[in-house]
Amino acid sequence: MTATLEKPPVTEAPVKEPRDWRGPALFAVVAIIGLVVMPLVLEPFRLGLLAKYLTYAIVALGIGLAWGQGGMLTLGQGVFFGLGGYAMGMHLKLNDAGDGLPDFMVWSGVETLPALWEPFRNPVFAIAMVVIVPGAVAWLLGTLVFRQRVRGAYFAILTQALAAAMVILLVGQQGLTGGTNGLTNFFEVFGQDVAADSTQRGLYFTVAIVLGILFIAVWQLQRSRFGRLLLAVRDGEDRVRFLGYNPATVKTITFTLSAVMAGIAGALFVPIVGIISPALLGVVPSLELVVAVAVGGRFVLVGAVLGAVLMGYAKTYFSEELPDAWLYLQGALFILVIGLAPKGIVGIISSVRESVAGRKKEVAA
Amino acid sequence: MEGILNQLPIGLSIAAVLLLIALGLTFTFGQMGVINMAHGEFIMAGAYTAYLLQDFAGRNAVLVALPVAFVVAGLMGLILERAAIRHFYGRPLDTLLLTWGVSLVLQQVARDLFGAPNVQVLSPTWLQGTFGPMPYNRMFILLLAVGSVVGIWVYMNRTALGRRMQAVMQNRQLAATSGINTGQVDQLTFFIGSGLAGIAGVALTLIGPVGPTLGTYYIVDAFLVVVAGGLGQLRGAVIAAAALGLLNSYAEFWTNASLAKVIVFAVIIAFLQFRPQGLFVLRSRALT
């Protein structure tokens, strides 16, 4: 791996302008707002909502990496979100059930605990699976698909089919997965009462910090040689191959990373929202997150996070206030953003800033 | 043994519906690089056309609906192409997201017009029998698909318009320099492809209820047919649709419905290991 990533003798990519401090400064401001202001200002219910959107933001970060940076439109992130979520949900269910069976198994007439469930009693195992299972599935799919140079729209269609298949599988295996209802009615998370305000507050801090760490990690990855290579693969896969790199490896690694992030998000989502079910991870939720990333701005990591949080709020607000209009609005927003502002909100902001800066220069001249 | 035989008409009729849906997709995808997620809503439009025509044509609504649905869905496709999609040629991933937005809106329109619950279209009395293991209604769907394939084949290979369509599909620039009005060809392809989805919608009323999300159940599988069959390939679409339809129904029969989709998915991934671009490939020297 390291051999193929040896730095090619090319000149450094041109640095746009000397504003390196602005990124970290913005990050610090957002971190203070997120970790100090929000918990003080928001009532517990609203803080819980924000925590939920932040889990979506983690998925969006992965989509931003895979799609914005790597050009892989993945329409199946819900699958990985779900794998992480179910791994966590299974642990919580077993923890609540003690020596007995999880409640839904009793209802569907399951007599003994399925062997698949047994190891999830162990919290360390469950948390490991949150990362390993989505990663392994994505790695397998990525290896098989990218190696054969299946890409672009084909890849998008395959990931969507995977999401559809996953939902049907989960619904069908009632006794193993809780069917349509999924896993819900949790009481305890790691020894804490899941409904208590203090627990929810702690979960909020957890998800905010995890998001922050992952953001910095992806940011660094993007700035690294690997990140450059990823951009090159997005913009000219064949040329990268002719230069002696293997684009399939680059893409597989990136896709796996994005899947792992979705898995972690799913695991955090479960105790915060209190449910994981097939409806939360099918074709539509997966696409909705891609839309959120597009709305925020797919080419910049901030855009992905911003889009996920904004769309989360918009969905909650409009489906409370104008439930009938929400689908129209969402569709219209979608069409407008893709059609008129493919770089999303971040793109609009930066083009406004550029035109302002341009005008200033004109005045100065 | 009897079960195997009984499963055959189900598999074949699903294959026929998938084929009708996939034909439109494979040509718009192959010719224009457009992934039309709203295609599923053209199916839904065709089905609701049959539902509405019941008031006039009673139980023979299905027959009357075939040409009407073709035109209704075709016009919807044409409007979508003119209004939005033509600005996105060569950006398949963007068209995918754009048309998904359109499909959301169309579903909500259907919900507002016809209500969220499913509605029923009564099939003609003369389709209510069976021939051996084959119910007449499923046989009718099969004939519909066969007729459409023959029609498309004749169109593509025996008419000037169809040959122009093939030319545009193979090399757009060269076709344009030869004097072909590629924009017009695109519109016609879109009209016919969407119209076939409308016919598929009418066919679906024979085997199930009609609802606003009817299209979403079939669109993913139809795209898999396109992927497995190869872009813009009539032969590929026929073979892939037959294989997928039968595989689906037999996988459901031998295991259960929830595993069937996973099996189909695994088979397609395995298949792509040997044929990454589908069964048949349009040869081209162009670099991506």
Q: Main traits of this protein?
A:
heterodimer; A: 365 residues; mainly alpha; two-stranded antiparallel sheet; 2% strand; B: 288 residues; ABC transporter involved in vitamin B12 uptake, BtuC; two-stranded antiparallel ribbon; 11 helices
Could you characterize the architecture of this molecule?
The complex is a heterodimer of chains A (365) and B (288). Chain A is mainly α. Helices cover 73% and strands 2% of the residues of chain A. Chain A has a domain at 23-276. The longest helix of chain A has 27 residues, at 197-223. The mean pLDDT of chain A is 87. By secondary structure, chain B is mainly α. Chain B has a single domain (10-274), classed as Orthogonal Bundle (ABC transporter involved in vitamin B12 uptake, BtuC). Helix content of chain B is 75%, strand content 1%. The model of chain B has no long low-confidence stretch (mean pLDDT 88). At the A-B interface, helix 5, helix 6, helix 12 and helix 14 of A face helix 4, helix 9 and helix 11 of B.
The quaternary structure here is: heterodimer
Q: How far do the termini of chain B sit from each other?
A: 49 Å
Instruction: Specify the overall morphology of chain B.
Output: globular
The beta-strand count of chain A equals: 4
Q: How large, in whole angstroms, is the Cα Rg of chain B? A: 19 Å
CATH topology of chain B: the name is ABC transporter involved in vitamin B12 uptake, BtuC
Q: Give a count of the beta strands of chain B, DSSP E runs of length 2 or more.
A: 2
Major sheet characteristics of chain B: 2 strands, antiparallel
Give the CATH class of chain B.
Mainly Alpha
**Helicity level of chain A:** over 70%
